[in-house]
């Protein structure tokens, strides 16, 4: 079973800020917006982090839970991360897809904010889920 990932501070970071004006299409139909893409070499290898705002996620009744959001994160990896990596000829060790119900600066603590994370390795233009 998939679990919660965890965020951690990054010391050496290159940021590409991207703003999506319209919600990205995902299987659940929930609104999801790209906040930014980070190229992170702090773990000793390149990790590509796609950070999204998904204002309806949460653990309470009426919110979009982790199980539904995990399918959306898989979709975002395949439809957004894979082409991004190919177009830029990058070779990341991992791709991390994160959803947050509100924008949070990378590495900052936000106790009241719901965040879901998944990590993948890319293999033959496919996203292979990696447990944290």
TrEMBL record:
Signal sequence segment: 1-20
Keywords: Signal
InterPro entries tied to this protein: DUF6497
Origin superkingdom: Bacteria
Pfam families per UniProt: DUF6497 (PF20107)
Name of this chain's protein: Acetolactate synthase
Organism: Falsiruegeria litorea R37
